[in-house]
Amino acid sequence: MSETVVEADGLGAAYGGPPALSGVSFSLEPGQTLCVLGPNGGGKTTLFRVLAGDLEAQTGTARVDGRPAHLPQAERPRLDFPVSAFDVALMGSLAHGRWWLPPRGHERAAARRALKRVGLEASEHDRFGSLSGGQRQRVLLARALVQDARVLLLDEPLAGVDPASAERITALFAELRAEGRAVLVSTHDVDSARGFDRVLCLNRRQVAFGTPAETLGSDVLEATYGAEIVMLDDGRRAVTVQHHAPGEFHPPAAGRAAPGAPPDHR
Amino acid sequence: MIDFLDALLDPLRSGLGRRALGEVALLGALGGGLSFWVTSYRLSYAAESLAHGLLPGAVVAALVGVPVAAGAGAGVLLAALLVAAAARDERIGVEAATAVAVSGLLGLGALLALAPASPQRLEELLFGDPLSVTGADLALAGAAVVAAGAALTALHRPLAAVAFDREGARAAGLQPALVSAALLALVALSLAVAVRGLGNLLALAVLVGPAVAVRGHVRTPAGAVIGGAVVAVVAGLAGVALSFALSVATGASVALALCAAAVAGASLPALRPQRPRARPAAPAG
Amino acid sequence: MRSFCIGKRLSRTILNYAPPLAAAPPSPLELVDLAFTRSALAELVLLAVAGGLLSGWIVLRRLAFFTHAAGTATFPGLVVAEAAGASPRLAALAVAGGYAGAVGHRPRRTGEGGDTTVALLLVVALAAGVVLAGDVFSSGAGVDSLLFGTLIGVEGGDLVVSSVVAALAVAATVLLGPVWAAAGFDPEAAQAAGVPVRRADLCLLALIAATVVAALPAVGALLVTSLLVVPAAAARLLCDRLSPLLAGAVAFALVQGVAGLYLALWLDVPPGPAVAAVGGLVFAAVACVHRPGRAA
């Protein structure tokens, strides 16, 4: 039995009211990637917050090896703070203890290397707040790389990101996997889930966990997304629909894309 | 004009003038260095309330005859505890709870100070009196600067990481609550020292003004901390000089000089050109 | 050795204070016997009505900092008026009213940037007032009376102003109370329903400014919150509905005003600090007796 770096068993969590998440059980080994699928409010961010230690689990247990690197969904870091991309990447080295000392040579080299890996070595000294959304995501990824965590929790890392950044970030997943890290990525792009080792479907509770072949069937997807899923190509492809005015959405006729409903296919 | 310029140098000519300059310089280094963190951690309102609320502690210290800084420090602690206690009930809200604690404490302090039995020293506690600074006060301020400087140096990276991204810092293994607590302790220390030079009503000038002055002109947190200290020291010394030349209250002069520096710094266009914006993502990323 | 010295000094200090306290406290009748105490009492009663009513709205609508800032900002205006021989009341009204107008026309809660700016402006106001006062007043007593109020010198004009403000507070509470409550609870829904939220809020801010100006002679520029925030904060711990809250706030304000005046007479201190200290005690007493509750 090989070691697991992430393990959840009957995990549940809430924000003071009804559970936002319940019955989550899965495990992940080093070098495995996990795609977390689910609708808005389905618990993806909640799960990541519990795994990162931000939120206490209400029921069940969660175990993560070491300190995971956490890329949040919302734009949390302050844009007016006077730090450069290099400074942000360097913050990852705080995870290695000895925070009272100034950064050492090898830590600075690691930050430089990380920025190169995400393709931002030219923007090293640019102020963080002056970078584009996609570039900021990449800098935060560089910070996660410097942190050298065995487990990475990336909450919708490709949301609102320009195509060049998205390509770079996706290529990075494969590199991290090859390095033996566990990468958990939440996304709305059902199609991309097929490229991951495992898939976890959440809709406030765990709907399915397994390989893409096991989980990406129409019944599982409908249980996960409800009326938000649109199947194309005789069920071989699926897109999710993100709607922002709940009263206005009309479910599509079976098998055909809904007219006028914008597909969210990145 | 020559007379005026000559009068600006008056503080250097007397012992009490030199001590005033020393006290204000030390206070500037301490408060100015902290001011970047005070504004980054959104502590302006809390600092103002703690400054107002420490009055009873300072008054009691002055009456009993112990160094005012010690009483002021205890006063800050008491104020913090009372604000926290008052804010426990969510129905009132932090703002109103703070107002309750501060008005009660300010009233108590004024009550003690204005009672006929008390020597008339309230003005000095409210608005500062750098001209009556003793060697002991200077030694205390010096020790505070050294201690705070060491603390700020050691805590520099955690302070920056937590200010930039609190949860990200926690994920990296830091403890944001402890970092915030350490910062509050340093604020309390600087308020305790500031009562002598600026008085508790004007102390906020040195804890907030310098950060506003350097914002937009510095590129790193370290630059903001050092720049804030430098601006505070220069403005403070100028304030003392002007108070001598114009024969006005010294503490208020220093406070106005610090605020003027803040306005000037905020109005000037960025002194150091920022690097050109990142080029749009090239095809290779 | 050192603690022994401090002990000696502490006991000497207490002995200094003992005589006024040990002396027989004045008879409560003195509050109405002497002319100047009668005026002060009437003033504080009127202010308790106005302040108590408004404190309810100030606590509910989260305007405590605005009130404190409005009071503090009038200080330099008062000093300038003294120097120029102009009416301090008008100067204070100009400052407080101007501040209310500025706040009313901008979105509130601009966050840290806004907090920092207002905090610095208050420092400038206080420092400028002190610098100007150095020219105007020969001793510190003048500044003390502006910052903390004064027992003597409550004139007929002050009573007229306070009566008018009290009447306005009652009328406004009756007429605009429902609008203020709706705006506090859910401003977007109220505005969508056609309720004149903006104008009603401007009225509230203006009324607060007027009450602050009325309270200045009695409690001083630094302690207006003792009558304009503390009473409702204490009442809020006990009352969950609006009418009892307002009534309770007025009741607490009356207690504070009268007891504070009595204390000020006894200890020979300005009324502002006495009222504020009593207010703090009242709040603490209520808070101890009542278990902390969740937001209603």
Give the topology string of chain B: H per helix, E per strand. HHHHHHHHHHHHHH
Shape of chain B: globular
Number of helices of chain B: 14
- Could you tell me the number of beta strands of chain B? 0
Q: In the CATH hierarchy, what is the architecture of chain B at level 2?
A: Orthogonal Bundle
User: Can you tell me the CATH class of chain B?
Assistant: Mainly Alpha
Number of domains of chain C: 1
**Shape label of chain C:** globular
**Count of distinct strands of chain C:** 0
Going by helix content, strand content and strand pairing, the class of chain B is mainly alpha
Verbal overview:
The complex is a heterotrimer of chains A (266), B (285) and C (296). Chain A has helices at residues 44-52, 85-91, 105-117, 133-147, 163-178, 212-215, 218-225; strands spanning 6-14, 19-28, 33-37, 59-64, 69-71, 151-155, 182-187, 198-202, 206-210, 229-232, 237-240. Chain A is built from seven helices and eleven strands. In chain A, helix 2 (85-91) crosses helix 3. In chain A, strand 6, helix 5 and strand 7 form a beta-alpha-beta unit. By secondary structure, chain A is of the alpha/beta class. Chain B has 285 residues and is mainly alpha-helical. Chain B has one domain (2-264): Orthogonal Bundle (ABC transporter involved in vitamin B12 uptake, BtuC). Chain B has helices spanning 2-8, 15-40, 44-53, 55-64, 68-86, 94-114, 122-127, 135-154, 156-164, 166-171, 176-197, 204-214, 221-246, 250-267. The termini of chain C are far apart. In chain C, helix 3 runs parallel beside helix 8 (156-185) and helix 4 (64-84) runs parallel beside helix 6. By secondary structure, chain C is mostly helical. Classes of the chains: A alpha/beta (266), B mainly alpha (285), C mainly alpha (296). Chain A binds chain B through residues 52-54, 67-70, 72, 76-78, 81-84, 87-88, 91-92, 94-95, 97, 99-100, 102-103, 119, 122-123, 125-127, 130-132, 134-135, 140, 143, 147, 162, 164-165, 167-168, and chain B through 40, 154-158, 160-161, 163-174, 218-221, 223-224, 274-275, 277-285.
